[in-house]
Design brief:
With 204 residues, the chain is an alpha+beta fold. It has 6 helices and 7 strands.
C-alpha cells in the first residue's frame, strides 16, 4: 500500500509533534536540555529498507516496541554502540566514555528512552488520526525489547511480520541532542498492512 502525499504529510507532522513531546519528557527525566528532531521521513520498499541501518558487517543495537490500538505494528529506535552508550552515560549521570559495554544498566537506560519516545510519538499520532467505528483513538506501546546484531539481520527480524503482507516501510530519521552532545538514533515506524490501509484513506 502506497501512501499519497497528504497521508505522508499527515504522519510526518504527527511524528514531528511527537518529537517535540519526547524532547520535553526526556528533559524532565534527566534534568538537562534535550532536543529531538525528525530530520527526514520517507516511504521505502522492504528490500531498500533492509540497508538503511548500515552494512551487513556493522553491528548495531535496537529497542523495539509493538504498538496496539488505532494502529498496529512496531516502533524501533536503532543506534550504533558509540551513540547508544554515550546516551546511556548521560542518562545515568556518568562522564561520557564511562560505559564500554551493554550491561543491564546501559540496556535499561536505552529501553527507558525508547519507552518515553514511543509514548510521545504514539500520543501525537492518536490525536491526529481520527478513529473510525468502535476503534479507540488510544495507541499503546508494549514494553520495548533490546537486541544487538548486524544491521541487516536486525532489519530482517524487525520486518519479518510485514514481508508477506506489505511491501513498504515508513521511516523517520531522528536527531538527538542532550546537554549539547549529539546522539544519532534512527526511529523506524513500521505499521502492519491493515494499518497502512487505514493510513491510505486518512486525510488531514
Amino acid at each position: 500500500m502506497t501512501l499519497a502525499g497528504p497521508q505522508l504529510t499527515l504522519i510526518q507532522t504527527a511524528l514531528r509533534h511527537g518529537a517535540d513531546e519526547a524532547s520535553h519528557a526526556l528533559a524532565r527525566w534527566i534534568d538537562r536540555p534535550t532536543r529531538i528532531t525528525v530530520d527526514s521521513f520517507e516511504q521505502l520498499a522492504l528490500d531498500e529498507a533492509l540497508g538503511v541501518l548500515g552494512s551487513r558487517e556493522t553491528p548495531i543495537c535496537f529497542c523495539r516496541a509493538a504498538m496496539t490500538g488505532r494502529l498496529r505494528g512496531h516502533l524501533i529506535l536503532a543506534f550504533d554502540d558509540a551513540s547508544g552508550l554515550a546516551l546511556a552515560d548521560l542518562l545515568l549521570g556518568h562522564e561520557r566514555g564511562t560505559a564500554t559495554a551493554w550491561t543491564e544498566m546501559e540496556q535499561s537506560a536505552a529501553l527507558e528512552t525508547t519507552n518515553i519516545v514511543c509514548c510521545a510519538y504514539l500520543n501525537s499520532l492518536a490525536r491526529v488520526l481520527p478513529a473510525g467505528g468502535d476503534e479507540t483513538e488510544t495507541l499503546i506501546p508494549s514494553s520495548p525489547q533490546f537486541a544487538r546484531d548486524f544491521a541487516e539481520s536486525l532489519m530482517e527480524f524487525a520486518l519479518m511480520d510485514q514481508i508477506v503482507a506489505s511491501d513498504e516501510v515508513l521511516l523517520a530519521r531522528t536527531e538527538f541532542q542532550i546537554d549539547g552532545a549529539p546522539v544519532d538514533w534512527t526511529l523506524l515506524f513500521v505499521p502492519d498492512a491493515p494499518s497502512l490501509d487505514k493510513l491510505s484513506v486518512t486525510s488531514p
